[in-house]
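Example: F-box domain-containing protein.
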Amino acid sequence: MPHEIRIYVLAFLTPKELVRASTVSKDFYKTCFDGQLWTCFDASEFYKEIPAESLAKIIVAAGPFVKDLNLRGCVQVEHYKRAEVVVKACKNLINATLEGCRNFQRTTLHSLLRSNEKLANLNLTGLTAVTNDTCRIIAQSCPQLQMFNVSWCKHMDARGIREVVEGCHMLKDLRAGEVKRFDNREVAEAIFRTNNLERLVLAGCDDLGDTALQIMIHGQNPEIDVLTDRPNVPPRKLRHLDLSRCVRLTTSGVKALGHNVPDLEGLVLSGVTRLTDLALEPILASAPRLTHLELEELAELTNALLSEHLAKAPCAPKLEHFSISYCENLGDSGMMPILRNCTRLRSVFMDNTRISDLSLAEAATMVRNRAIDSAQLVSSPSAYPVVGLSLVVYDTQNVTWTGVREVLSNNVKIVQRKSSNSNPTGTAGQATATASKSVAGEIIGLKCFYGWQMTVDEHTKRVLRGDVAAACRLERKWADYMQANEEAGVAGANGRRRRRRAREAQLAHADEEEGGAGAVQGRRRARTAACAVM
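Written out as structure tokens, the predicted fold is:
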């Protein structure tokens, strides 16, 4: 077989399969380690199972061909000698991920950067070898860099970021979480002048303050428009902004984003505890493309922000991910308008809030109406439902089992509606066969109180596989069990009978979760035994 055909056939194998195939014969060994098969080298998928010698041989053989290199978690190359082998072999890298390679020496890393001028994506998360000098080398040697990640690099600061921003004019994605000295005005001014960044991650940058953020958005001493009283500067191109855990930021700093980031799609402000409604109102009014919004641990937010601003904002029909975890002042009056108007929501985190069963019922109604409006309840018997909305409501004291049951009941109703639509005039036998395997549309995936979670997961599993009868049976027996437990705790007459019913309901529910038929034997007659006295 010609060598070219062998290469073509072996190109369909995974790296792990190539290493196994290399043990067949000497010819296979030589062919499997041909560099043309290793243009994309992702060692994170098999680094635990491949010997260090084989890994080094692959990199040396494929060095000139490798364009995508991922050594994340690859402990075999942590020794400095093996790292030097990688540097000498790889000269044409476009994407490089060295996250977690703790023993990468500084000189070795600098040599790798100098010899790869075509680097477009570089991930150096957590590397101790990264310093401001490293950033200077990147700015001089990698003019085509588009993504740069130096989060958790503790031996550098924002001055190195300034070098990269000013030297790499194609940079669009900058991730510098936990990097110090972002209060430097020169760094903020450099970010403002470039105006090329589409993603900016500054999570955990404790030094970032209001003044620095304002300079990043509208520069120093901008011209103020007389009519609108806003800075007259070009709008920023930011599409994703992460300012979580920047504890020095306040309302005056975050408010500067309003009317200056029209293309914003994702905003993360979790942990910026000093924010109020005034910080978010102008942002929501001027960001029509916003799809992801995280506002966790913001204790000063009120329900008025959600009901009067977010629910009526231009971004409401497009919002997909929303998180208000640990916002203890937010409840049903704020969330119900959101669930009613934001019809494209895919995930909502509401744990540790004041929401109640009303919000769960509103979410169930929204998902049911969305499935009907989008014509997802099709009549194909091979279509199965998917989780269209993920709700997280654990540690919410106002959510009871009746609200959880409302969600479970809604999931079953979607299936039953589909079953009836798919067989409007058929016989009972055909309807039963259809109900056993024909479901479509979207259901709700729920995370709730841990004592109920196993039942919710089992119910969701049955709905997803189209077993309507089993899902209904589980829901009914769980409801009987919960109701019997509530009755057993009530004082008064017939208490013994209520406790007995609670025990029987518990046994039936446990048997149903284990996949049994659910039948519970009647209580056996008590028998007294004779007492023998010796």
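Residues 376-381, 424-439, 517-534 have pLDDT under 50 and may be disordered.
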